[in-house]
């Protein structure tokens, strides 16, 4: 068996095929608040938080005017956007609700709290915040014991 990768390794970015670049930018920048860092004409754009070169790439190179893959096929399940704290996640909920975007779900996983929705192209998007590792649920042997229970949305809204 090979050695594990370094624990500092992170997912650098996700690059999505979209049908309409302007519509995708309206969602990722206009609703979620990412900043546009670079455009490649009318076909591609990169967006980020905090000045990073890009967290999300969006392009229409192979997908302009296309439709999402049908249920039951392989592909992206969702991308997760990790917010730094509960107040920031509450603000994300406020933004989504103000834009009239419906949630697909909202879960407390013990290790994290998560909101689930779809972007304009049908891609699954998880907006989440992690709890400190010391608060993660563990079983009697000390192993991670993630769970799924209903997230208290009223309590989260109160954080905004």
Terminal CA distance reads 46 Å
Biggest sheet strand line-up: 5-8-7-6-9
Q: Counting H and I runs of at least 4 residues, what is the number of helices?
A: 3
Query: What average pLDDT do the residues reach?
Result: 96
Topology as a string of helices (H) and strands (E)? EHEEEEHEEEEH
State Rg.
17 Å
Query: What best-fitting shape do the alpha-carbon axes yield?
Result: globular
Which range does the strand content fall in?
25-35%
Beta strands, count? 9
Helix content: 10-25%
- Specify the biggest β-sheet: 5 strands, mixed
Structural class category: alpha+beta
Give the low-confidence spans: none
Task: Please give the structural blueprint.
Blueprint: E1 14-17, H1 21-31, E2 35-40, E3 44-48, E4 56-59, E5 79-83, H2 86-98, E6 105-108, E7 112-118, E8 124-130, E9 149-150, H3 153-157
Describe the structure.
A 5-stranded mixed β-sheet has the order 5-8-7-6-9. The longest helix is centred in the middle third of the chain and has 13 residues, at 86-98. A hairpin with a 3-residue loop joins β6 and β7 (112-118). With 160 residues, the chain is of the alpha+beta class. It is 18% helix and 28% strand. The protein is built from 3 helices and 9 strands, in the order βαββββαββββα.
Keywords:
globular; alpha+beta; five-stranded mixed β-sheet; 160 residues
């Amino acid at each position: 068996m090979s050695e594990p990768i370094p624990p500092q390794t992170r997912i650098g970015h996700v690059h999505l095929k979209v049908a309409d670049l302007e519509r995708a930018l309206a969602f990722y920048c206009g609703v979620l608040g990412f900043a546009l860092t670079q455009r490649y004409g009318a076909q591609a754009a990169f967006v980020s938080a905090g000045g990073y070169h890009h967290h999300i790439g969006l392009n229409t190179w192979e997908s302009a005017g296309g439709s999402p893959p049908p249920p039951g096929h392989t592909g992206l399940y969702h991308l997760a956007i990790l917010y730094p704290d509960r107040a920031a996640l509450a603000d994300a909920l406020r933004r989504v609700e103000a834009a009239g975007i419906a949630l697909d779900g909202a879960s407390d996983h013990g290790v994290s709290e998560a909101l689930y929705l779809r972007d304009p192209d049908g891609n699954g998007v998880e907006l989440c915040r992690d709890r400190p590792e010391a608060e993660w649920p563990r079983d009697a042997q000390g192993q991670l014991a993630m769970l799924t229970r209903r997230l208290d949305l009223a309590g989260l809204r109160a954080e905004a």
